[in-house]
């Protein structure tokens, strides 16, 4: 049995080839990034970016808060989302006292600036005290991370499988 050739540009069922490669976008384009700010939209019981910033700022005295909000630095692939910076600025304005000042700065190379900064930090001799060698990790295990001076006491290492 031989397949019957269809006229150019048409697919079985009468549609065009171009219509097979079209993806209709509705409100998903706007709702998907909103999950970063409101994870509860998809049933995740966690704070969004703005709520987390507000929580962290709340753990400092007001004079330290004022210094911290003078240098909000946005970097990383997620910051490439349309209006990400504007949304974060709006949320900061909402959470800060009326007429208080803050500064939101976008990285010049959002995809690489975080890595470059960490790379420069890691190459500085004075920062060796914060490192954990592979040998130390293998000898002492994940629990050592809790004891290390660079540890975050609020986060526990993932359990080994």
TrEMBL record:
<dbReference type="Pfam" id="PF00022">
    <property type="entry name" value="Actin"/>
</dbReference>
<dbReference type="GO" id="GO:0005634">
    <property type="term" value="C:nucleus"/>
</dbReference>
<protein>
    <submittedName>
        <fullName>Actin-related protein 5</fullName>
    </submittedName>
</protein>
<dbReference type="InterPro" id="IPR004000">
    <property type="entry name" value="Actin"/>
</dbReference>
<dbReference type="InterPro" id="IPR043129">
    <property type="entry name" value="ATPase_NBD"/>
</dbReference>
<keyword id="KW-0539">Nucleus</keyword>
């Amino acid at each position: 049995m031989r397949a019957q050739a269809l006229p150019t540009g048409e697919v079985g069922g009468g549609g065009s080839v171009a219509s097979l490669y079209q993806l209709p976008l509705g409100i998903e384009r706007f709702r998907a990034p909103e999950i970063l700010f409101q994870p509860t939209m998809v049933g995740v019981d966690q704070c969004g970016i703005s709520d987390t910033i507000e929580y962290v700022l709340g753990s400092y005295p007001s004079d330290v808060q004022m210094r911290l909000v003078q240098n909000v630095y946005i970097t990383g692939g997620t910051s490439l989302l349309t209006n990400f910076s504007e949304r974060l600025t709006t949320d900061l304005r909402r959470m800060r006292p009326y007429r208080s000042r803050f500064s939101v700065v976008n990285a010049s190379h959002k995809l690489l600036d975080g890595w470059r900064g960490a790379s420069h930090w890691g190459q500085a001799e004075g920062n060796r005290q914060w490192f954990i060698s592979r040998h130390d990790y293998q000898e002492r295990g994940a629990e050592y991370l809790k004891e290390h001076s660079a540890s975050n006491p609020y986060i526990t290492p993932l359990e080994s499988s």
